[in-house]
Amino acid sequence: MMKQSNMIHYFSSIFSPKRMFKQRNTLNYGTMFMIFVFLVSCIMFPITLRTVQINTVSLEVFVPHILDSITDEAIAPLQKVTIQGDTLQGSAFQKGQVAGWLPEQERFLDTVDKGIYFDTIGFYIKVKEQTVSKVPYSQPLDTKVLTDVESIKHFISKQWFTANRGYAVSYILLSSAMLIATNMLLIVLGAAFFLWLTRQSKLFTIKTYKECLNLILNTLGMPTLLTCVILFMGIDIPTALQIHGFATVLTIVLVFYMTHYNDNFLEKKLIQSKYKD
Prior knowledge:
Elements (H helix, E strand, L loop, with lengths): L1 H12 L3 H6 L6 H23 L20 H4 L6 E3 L2 E3 L8 E2 L5 H7 L2 E5 L3 E6 L2 E7 L12 H15 L1 H32 L12 H24 L4 H23 L3 H14 L1
Parallel strand pairs: 3-4
Antiparallel strand pairs: 1-2, 4-5, 5-6
Helix pairs in contact: 3-7, 3-8, 7-8, 8-9
């Protein structure tokens, strides 16, 4: 019941700079943690919906530099590859990177440190001593996709993503969640620390680090909800996170402008506003 009351206090404070400051002592550490998780989840929700809808991601996100060797010079022999029956006809070794023709598989895997080998039912990806994976084609191989560098890179990435969709989506979401949580944690801890340094000044009435944490979490509420909305509107993720950071700083400054981080100043402002009314 107490945690529920604390959560209500939190959501009642995030829409007013004055209440953000005034209600800086309402949360315990457990509730702060729950709110932090909630704020991260608000940003992750639209990102998750986007991620599960994607059809392909560059393979280099998961295997760095694996596609660097696919150049015009390296793929030139692939132009001569044809499909006859159940086999690829024509060898396509070039710098030990890209290969075609089923009988060449063992020589390719034994002699190449890094590369991609095509056969009729799928292709192999190898890095150093390991075969990273064998990727089956989601549709019959058409040699037309082997005509230029970008087409081959797109084809490889899409086929790998289709075959490993579950792993790829989980990896992207986990990486995104860790990045966003780390970024937000640094904002909370860092901003709270700088506020805490003002505790010795008589101009401010913030005295404990817990107050600072509570206040920064209060200021994060509106920027986070705003970021969630703009992500649903289709804004790209890096831009949305930049807006989130800028809006958070702006909110902290606005709280200072409205309260001077001083309870006495805030009380005087409230009394003055009552007399005006």
